[in-house]
Amino acid sequence: MENRKVLNVGIDLGTSRSVIATDTGIRTFITSHVGFPKDAVSAKMFGKDMVFGEEAVQNRLALDLYRPFEGGKLKYSDSPEGETVEEHEKAKRVAKGLLNHLIELVLKDEDEDERPIIRGVLGAPALASRKNKKVILEIADGVLDDVMIVSEPFAVAYGLDLFSSALIIDIGAGTVDLCRMHGTIPTAEDQITTLKAGDYVDSVFLNLIKKKYNDVNLTINMVKRFKEENSFLTKQGENIFIELPINGKPTQCDVTQELRSACQAIVPAIVEGVRDLVADFDPEFQRGLKRNVILAGGGSQIVGLRKEIELYMEETLGYGRVSTVEEPLFAGANGALLLCKDMPDDYWDQLRTNPSAEQGPMI
């Protein structure tokens, strides 16, 4: 086993997209959807038992479609609230299938007879450190040879060499995760997770449109795609229209205020998290955190969000300076990969020889 090649990977299993980066230079992602053929006809059409990513979304009428991490499930909750045990176990199997597919994408050019040892660092929501590390490890078992779990905002910070005087906000679809960096490995007290994230914006946006246009017929998937292409928080600019079917007729609908209100809905919870992490920090170092707030994740691309958070911070904290990472989609996976490569061989050897030590500390 020692003579086998080692492949280091950094992975962000997101609610909306799952991203992987490898030390062979591969960086790719898929939407976090898994579909199962509904009947014999759909099974014949696909010729496979599981369909992943955008292919699953485009053919969702022929599939039973799952988003295994939707609503923070698996990575956030340690109990299947509202689910039976069977449903929870199926969600884990679906998530394992998604992770395995992601690994297969980066191994497609590898010799099947010389499969490398795969060492991976997986990003998880900040509260997973207290809630559900065990489930994430179960998902990775049998797919990765060695695994360590880190909080998603910490992975972003590590990739950017931001080890001190920084506050990272990773805005995903299922969760918004905050982590303050102060020169040491962050503890649970340094991290906060809120479920008011991208999916929450979609839900608010959908309800506001339905309230304004009573006879409109649209789905959450339509709303999500439109939001990702047009989300904003600025007050200036042209009105935003979306073509929607009303009583079966395509109609141009003005959704400018509805989209802005939906995007703004996540800001108070984010700033409340910032305030909590700043308020109980050493007062001599609070200003350093407030002047170096970093946005990452897909939600960081909302036009005007950076400025909106600064305005809220000015009201609640007296001051705030916010910036955005250059690669919001890959920042977490890049940082996880860098951490994976930086861990000494002795660390991974210890994990392999002592599996009872609950592989991979949650950082």
Structure description:
This protein is α/β, with parallel strands linked by helices and 363 residues long. Helices cover 39% and strands 22% of the residues. The strands form four sheets. A five-stranded mixed β-sheet has the order 3-2-1-7-8. A hairpin with a 3-residue loop joins strand 1 and strand 2. The C terminus is likely disordered.
Report the sheet-strand fraction. 15-25%
Extract low-pLDDT stretches.
Answer: 355-362
Rg from C-alpha positions?
A: 21 Å
Give the overall form: flat
Structural class: alpha/beta
User: How many strands appear in the DSSP assignment?
Assistant: 15
Total helical elements? 14
Mean pLDDT: 88
What is the straight-line distance between the termini?
28 Å
Strand order within the widest beta sheet: 3-2-1-7-8
What is the N-to-C succession of helices and strands?
EEEEHEHEHEHHEHEEEHHEEHHHEHEHH
Largest sheet: 5 strands, mixed
Helix content: 25-40%
Tags for this model:
disordered C terminus, single chain, flat, 5-stranded mixed sheet, 363 residues, alpha/beta
Task: List the SSEs and their pairings.
Layout: E1 6-13, E2 17-22, E3 27-31, E4 34-37, H1 40-46, E5 51-52, H2 53-58, E6 63-66, H3 85-107, E7 117-124, H4 128-131, H5 133-140, E8 146-151, H6 152-159, E9 164-171, E10 176-182, E11 191-194, H7 198-212, H8 220-230, E12 241-246, E13 249-254, H9 256-264, H10 267-279, H11 286-290, E14 293-296, H12 305-317, E15 322-324, H13 331-342, H14 345-353
Parallel strand pairs: 1-7, 7-8, 9-14, 14-15
Antiparallel strand pairs: 1-2, 2-3, 4-5, 4-6, 9-10, 10-11, 12-13
Helix pairs in contact: 3-5, 6-13, 7-8, 7-9, 10-12
